[in-house]
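Hey,

The postdoc asked me to send both predictions to you directly instead of through the lab channel. I've kept everything plain text so nothing gets mangled by the mail client. Protein one:
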Amino acid sequence: MKIVTYNVNGLRQRISQFGSLPKLLNSFDADIICFQETKLRRQELTADVVIADGYESFFSCTRTSDKGRMGYSEEGFTGLLRNNTKEEAPAAVVAGLEDFGKDELLQIDNEGRCIITDHSLFILFNLYGPRAVSDDTERIQFKLKFYKILQRRWEHLLQQGRRILVVGDLNIAPAAIDRCDAGPDFEKNEFRTWLRSMTVQAGGPFFDVFRALHPDRRDAYTCWPSNTGAEQFNFGSRIDHILSAGSCLHEDCDSPDRNFITCHVKECDIMTQYKRWKPGNTPRWKGGWSTKLEGSDHAPVYLSLMEITDIPLHDTPSSSARYFPMIRGLQQTLASLLMKRQMSEQVEVCEVPNSFSVHSSTMRSCSGSLKRSGDNCSIRDEHSEHFPRKVGPTSSRNLGPDFKKKTRKGQSSQLSLTSFFQKSPKCSIEVGNLGNELDDVSKEPSNSDKDSGSQEDDPMPSNSSQDEDELSVSCSSEKERNNTTLLQWQRIQQLMQNKIPMCKGHNEPCVSRIVKKAGPNFGRRFYTCARAEGPSSNPEANCGFFKWSGSKSKQK
């Protein structure tokens, strides 16, 4: 059996990267795949991100901004998010968590950070641990409570003799070896102390499976900051884990040398082929990537198990995503129902006059949405592969009272049908001196030119010559204005370039950044070395230069 855990940093982005959900899943060649940070709300769980042949999927979405929609699946680890149907008992706190208040437990589970699946041989926890920076007291308390309640749940399951696998992004690097820039006090952090206390080495029940197999491997990271180019020098941390607790599957498992790791784990490693930055075929960081890198800022971790006994076939759990009402097509929102009715009413009003000119090879019935833009009507057929068709001008009385609406500000409008076919005037004169241009344009045509055409071919020669003069003057003036504007921008850029300091380590121009974090320096501009973040021992990496700018940027 192969299990993969992956912080995808947006599931839709990864599906787009691989072409489809089945292609993404099949690339891992795994039996169980656990994603974190999908960035999907419950109403965004459509078939293209949920359904794949050969797989059953289970989702947990944040409920903090979607209160009242108590879920479609049993999710979380407190038992309070259970689907309340007539066939099921009302949601209740699971055994072992009775000491915690209901509101307290709901606060923990409402962020959609845990999915639990029971595979008979073991219980699998797919976790996305909270992130808390050092000066955010509220999030620190939330993170402490999250892991305290989770630990209580684990202890109760182990007391019942169950095996546990914990996978996911825990947002904790347990030891100094798991962090690129770990300082002397790195391991004193309360979350790192807690995670190490849960391991077998400290007397706890869990194995850190990767470290159990690779105890001395350095530079083994799973996450890299995306805004500093840290991937270029592998300047990251190991915060994506696979933990295991419980006995092996053999009958004679009482031996102290036999456990789930020694008996059933074949391999556990980081899938570095999924990293965004690959040496040799991607650009180098210079204050930013010259081209956008595809992929997550995390790398997947996999676990290969051996000697796993077969599990009897069973029905698909009711919490599977295939039974979600929005996937099965049984649920329809009131807004979508009213939208369809409104579109139907607009179709009835849309009576196209005979004088309309349709700018399309075909014209289907007006079954799509209809928008009004100035004096134009744009018809969009939702069942057609063509672009919206434009029709000629008409008045609101031809289309009924529903179209007496004001034109949106800033929206371009078609003034006349003729303007659709007129060619825009092009300036063909490219002489640098304005005086010469005017002289050339004002020259009288030769006699041969005058006699070359009849009066019928050129009924208004004087007006035509005047139009040419005006066009030439206009084009020349426009070119002078463009040249002046270009020179001004060049001077401004030169002045800005002269104000940018040079970094001390490489004597190269710095990049400008703005403080976005709330605090006394919010909105303040500073300069830093433009190179990618990396170890201080590497002269090619960021030299650490920093300088405040003299002025604050305007806050949006």
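Protein two:
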Amino acid sequence: MSGLKNSPFGKRLRAAQQDHDDEAPRRNRPRVNPIFGVAPTSTPSLDSRPNTSSSSGGPESPVDIPRVTRDYGDRFVPSRDAGDMRTSYHLMDEGGPSTPSKNRMIPSESDALKEQANALFSTILHSEVTPPSPRRPISPARPAAVASTSAVPPSTPTRRRLFAFNSPASNPATPTRRLDTPTDEAYSMSPVRAESRHILESPRRQLRSVCKTPYRVLDAPDLADDFYLNLVDWSSTNVLGVGLGSCVYLWTAHNAAVSKLCDLADSNDTISSVSWVQKGTTLAVGTLAGRLHIYDASTLQLQRTYHGAHTQRIGALAWNAHVLSSGSRDRMVHHRDVREPTTRPFKRCAGHRQEVCGLKWSGDGGPGAANLASGGNDNKVCIWDLRGSRRATGPGAGRPAGAGAGVGGGSSTSGSGDDTGPGDAPLWKFHEHTAAVKALAWDPHVAGVLATGGGTQDKHIRFWNTMNGTMLNELDTGSQVCNLIWSLTSHELVSTHGFSSTTAQNQICIWKYPTLNMVASLTGHTNRVLYLAMSPDGETIVTGAGDETLRFWNAFPKKEKTFERTRESRLDYGKLIR
């Protein structure tokens, strides 16, 4: 055999065998156990091709690189007790995205009771998912110093550890020690922990529920589906005025009687806005042709007509006692005293570069109602003071508008001949909205607070302090804000919506101020809810939409009666002290 090994035939045989081994793929080589130095008897192969060498008894392995198995003697079990619970259980933040409106969706069925139940469920879920804090008693045989050193240090937010490694206690609590506590979980008949039971048994604030269905629905044919018009208003005498096409109809709430106030079909004109005086039966009607009519609803008689009040349609009207303010597509705001015989405005205000689509006076028409808010299609909000007041520049979003913002910066006095001169500049001008501002509402509970709502590209409700021109807060509603109105019986705000970037649209939402939590969300309209008015008692709201319906909702509770102490008369001699 030695001669055959050293012969030329043996040398060629060994060389061919060596070349065959070098060309073979590495995955076909047997894996050698580094501990025992031998190949395993059988190893499964991941190769889908038929194993032709299996018949020769040569095992194959799919592993490329040989792995060395090490035995540590014990294993560490990760403990999340001292870690970041929100990171460990993949809990998202409560706030969510702040600016993107596409991710913001108003739930179609939401009220205060459901929101409270959702918050309670979330709290219980966190309580049950969060691991309980370790409470290991210190053994008497173990020094306290050693036990303190074995405690896991608390994790800091900068480290953001997902796992905390520690060893189990050498002397766990015995059942006899644990069962000595009467509040132990072993005695509990509840499937939840003691913390969760405490949360469930704690008293909760009683919340009111809002009826989700309207108690009355009226047909309103020819109700225009136009964002820039204001065709519905509710008077202090409990009469609802609605502009339908070229007619104005009056609906009396206490007997549901309907009467026709006017019809402008003969003059080929269309109603574009209606507005009641704060106290009384006088109704102002604006038209697409720029005419302004004043009616007495009690007698259904026309009192006055201002021909050519504006050069284009009048989309917004607002009363301040005997002063009627009108905003038009000609970008002007005119102020008229209806007691004067002249038809010319005593004051003109120019602060918008596009159509004026919203007007609201502060207060209820009393002596303190001196500020007028106007919103325009130029995304601006202007605050006017007809008294000619000027304020210093304050920190915040708003700033006093001088001659550059309006036509002029001079202050005009009251009179019939001042209409040809320059109008007043706005006291404040807010530029934060990114869409047309039609929705305006003054807070009746806090002086100087104004709520404004933006259109489709804005979707925000912003709150302003008109005393110093600062923005107090803002709310991303996720949909077009068409109208705003404050509650008279509670500090809540109603908003109506139209186009939305989400599936929920055409809603009526009630918000709690200043927390801005949603109290209720009302649905039912199939088109944009463009019109909104409130009953004089403050309990009912009426909404109008392009679906040509008027819906009446019981949105607010009745006003609590306050038993005021009657003033004692000085003529009552029986109560006088002698």
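Summary for protein two, as requested: The mean pLDDT is 77.

Thanks,
C.
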